[in-house]
Design goal:
Largest sheet: none
Helix content: 25-40%
Strand content: under 5%
Number of helices: 5
Order of helices and strands: HHHHH
Number of strands: 0
Length: about 160
């Protein structure tokens, strides 16, 4: 059973249409939640997805997410999570383990980084109930919440680089 906190945070994310824009990840979805329109990815995002990364695993059959292969992919994805909870962009976070420490990784929301990793790990958590996947998704969600500007928007990455804008 998913904790109430996890479920509540999932509901907030689903409502704002970020992580769950494609309707995937039924971890805590309820019938009362509105359907979200699919977002059309940019050309850069489509190109990055065609080269690998977590997106290639998001449409697997439900049984796959509990498989040893899924757990092996998830183990690699976990090595790419930044200390603040995000994942880097322009890196296939499913190909090989990161050689950087979590403190050296700069997570971002750009090019679907962080969101695709969260979606994949949440699906694997749903199939395995392995707490390490749930904790990684929660850290990613916490990053989304702490990085929101008072005006309601989000930076490209958090904390924003001093040289950006």
């Amino acid at each position: 059973m998913i904790s109430a906190g996890f479920s509540a945070r999932y509901s907030i994310i689903a409502a704002i249409g970020f992580v769950f824009a494609s309707g995937a990840l039924a971890v805590a979805k309820t019938a009362s939640q509105p359907s979200l329109p699919a977002m059309k990815p940019s050309a850069a995002t489509r190109a990055a997805g065609s080269q690998g990364g977590p997106r290639q695993y998001l449409d697997k059959p439900a049984a796959w997410y509990g498989s040893d292969e899924a757990k092996a992919v998830a183990a690699i994805v976990l090595t790419h999570q930044a200390a603040l909870g995000g994942w880097p962009k322009n890196i296939d976070t499913t190909a090989k383990p990161s050689t950087q420490s979590a403190d050296q990784i700069h997570g971002t929301f750009d090019n679907n980084a962080t969101f695709d990793e969260m979606r994949l790990l949440a699906k694997i958590y749903d199939a395995t109930h392995d707490e390490q996947y749930k904790k990684a998704v929660e850290r990613g969600m916490d990053l989304i919440f702490i990085s929101q500007y008072p005006t309601g928007g989000w930076p490209q990455s958090y904390p924003p680089d001093k040289s950006y804008h």
